[in-house]
Amino acid sequence: MVRFSLETGLRQANVTGLQWTQVDLVRRCAWIHPDQAKARRAISVPLSKTAVVILREQMGKHETKVFTYSGKPITQVNTKAWRQALSRAGIDNFRWYDLRHTWASWHVQAGTPLHVLQELGG
Question: Start and end of every Tyr recombinase domain (predicted)?
C-alpha cells in the first residue's frame, strides 16, 4: 500500500477503500468516485507500470477490495506493523499523508507543471 500510495498520490482512505470496480488495468487507470474524494469531484488516476504490478500482485486476494491482509480488507493503516516498520527504518514523526507529499515532490522535481499536479492530486 505504501508503494501504491507513492506511485499514485492517493489519500489513505482512497487506497484502503479502493475496489476492483474502480480499476482498469488494460487502460492503466483507476478512479475515485466523487463521494470518496475530498473535493467531492471524481478523480481519474493514471497508473504507472509499478502501480499496475502492485495491483496485479493483489489480484485474487479479495472479491471486491484491492488491499487486504489475511483475506480481510485493510481499513486502518496506523497499525503496530506500520509503527514498527517506521521504527526499523529509523523514521520519526512520519504520517501516512507524508507519502502524498513525497509523491507531489517527486512530480515537481520531474518537471510536472503545477496545474497538472493539481489535477492529478484531485
Answer: 1-122
Phi-psi region of 9 (alpha: psi -120 to 50; beta: other; left: phi over 0): left
Q: What's phi and psi for 22, nearest 5 deg?
A: -100, 5
Residues linked to residue 19 through DSSP beta bridges, in sequence order? 65
Query: For each of the chain's 122 residues, which pLDDT tens digit applies?
Result: 999 999 999 999 999 999 999 999 999 999 998 888 777 778 889 999 999 999 999 999 999 999 999 999 999 888 898 899 999 999 999 999 999 999 999 999 999 999 999 888 87
DSSP structure string for 60-80: TS-SSBS-EETTEE----SSH
In whole angstroms, give the CA distance from residue 120 to residue 113. 11
Residue 82 CA to residue 48 CA, distance in Å, equals 24
- At 15, give phi and psi (nearest 5°): -75, -50
Rounded Cα gap, residues 28 and 55, in angstroms: 10
Domains of the chain: 2-120 (1.10.443.10)
